[in-house]
Amino acid sequence: MAKTKTSNTPSPPPLSRERILQVALRLADEGGLEALSMRKVAQALGVKAMSLYNHVASKDDIIDGIVDIVVSDIELPRFDLDWKTAMRQRALSAHEVLLKHPWAAMAIMSRINVGPAMLRYVDRTIGCLREAGFSWRMADYAWNAIDSHIYGFTLQELNYPVEASKYSETAESFISYIPPDQYPYMHQLSLYIIDGSYDGVYNFEFGLDFVLDGLDQLRERN
Amino acid sequence: MAKTKTSNTPSPPPLSRERILQVALRLADEGGLEALSMRKVAQALGVKAMSLYNHVASKDDIIDGIVDIVVSDIELPRFDLDWKTAMRQRALSAHEVLLKHPWAAMAIMSRINVGPAMLRYVDRTIGCLREAGFSWRMADYAWNAIDSHIYGFTLQELNYPVEASKYSETAESFISYIPPDQYPYMHQLSLYIIDGSYDGVYNFEFGLDFVLDGLDQLRERN
DNA sequence: TGAGTTAGACTTACAGTGTACGTCTACTCA
DNA sequence: TGAGTAGACGTACACTGTAAGTCTAACTCA
């Protein structure tokens, strides 16, 4: 009987970079990047911390890995659509994906990302703009401007400590800390949120459209 | 002789929240937030770590404190200028200040900031927009859109691992990692940076103007 | 002046972090 | 059969923030 290749003991699947990244991604999604430690990842895999180093180089390597997995989830811009539609779709997709992984926007912004998914994503984005008639410089500028909005907006959104549905009651409980003589405008704005005149919910596409429209005018001028 | 109040021993100035924050700010500016530890702050003050807790509540309290110091350095929007000029000035000032303290943009985006300088800064910003004729909702939206660009752009800029003056030579040494068959557009863009056709330096005002112009059109339509 | 209070720096300790380094076991292949 | 190796493990180190308790010097007030 050949038990050389197929072991029939129901041992757990062998450790691998993929399994480590998969568990790390789950832990990060559940508790943020600060909840991600080598010991916790190892424990979730039924293994000791140092065993992970047989498959990944370091904790940074793990974070790079899960960042690239997240990026691979963003829809690539489509070359068959007009550039504005393509860029809007990819921005909306990026925004959506980053909200699903609340730690990711910050991680992307604070480290150098050269994973294959990221490189591909950037290449396609610049390519889409280039094919739309932007010069190389303008394609690069446009990419940077759109991404500034994506990351800036999403980070502000994620950092907001209150759920949108509770803006009103939260404003009500904190209004006393915003005295009208010191902060008249914030005070007034809070009152409007309390009485329901304004829900306080931001809109990702609001600022995005300013950038896309501005870029479009600039493109047509050439 | 009354030596009750004025001790003439040249003892170091007493520990205080202000001195702690001042040293912490310097350490953060020099080595980033991750270089900021209670033990290092204490050592720089000639004191042991736990002594700091007589003057600050926690490390988070210190970070909140130095964030607010940084924010207090941003020029408040001026009500006597037209809103676009005022917002441009405040955006440029914010960008400039955030570049001087490379850790700060990330810190602001990843924590809740309710220091006096921050509250004042936000109140004035919303106020300036409100006085310019924006509705409360639109003033809030506008503030959010402008700040998305400020933080998004600045974070991308700070995260860039290379100095602007070395883009060309850096691109040259890394071009082999960007094969033209896999990443054709990035490859081509790198070539243009190498041969000097394009310097690769982004412009903060490029995207900012899209947002400001878009907001202006929206304001005039009402 | 003497006693009581207190501010503030100190020491110790704990539970956590990433990871360098060395060891031990089980499997592969010549 | 015996060498080589992959991979899990244990130990250890230098850090982190901070809870808890101690000690001393200065101030307050009768």
Written description of the protein model:
- The structure is a homodimer of 222-residue chains.
- With 222 residues, chain A is mainly alpha-helical.
- The first copy, chain A, is built from ten helices and no strands.
- In chain A, helix 1 crosses helix 3, helix 6 crosses helix 7 and helix 8 crosses helix 9.
- The N and C termini of chain A lie far apart (75 Å).
- The relative contact order of chain A is 0.09.
- The N terminus of chain A is likely disordered.
- The first copy, chain A, binds a DNA duplex (30 and 30 nucleotides) through loops.
- Envelope shape of chain A: flat
Helix and strand succession of chain A? HHHHHHHHHH
Q: What share of the residues of chain A lie within helices?
A: 55-70%
Uncertain runs of chain A with pLDDT below 50, 5 residues or more?
A: 1-11
Cα(first) to Cα(last) distance of chain A is 75 Å
Mean pLDDT of chain A: 92
Q: Oligomeric form of this entry?
A: homodimer
Number of strands of chain A: 0
Strand pairing plus helix content of chain A: what structural class?
Answer: mainly alpha
State the helix count of chain A. 10
Report the major sheet of chain A.
none
Q: Which strand-content bin applies to the residues of chain A?
A: under 5%
Largest interface: A-B, 55 and 55 residues
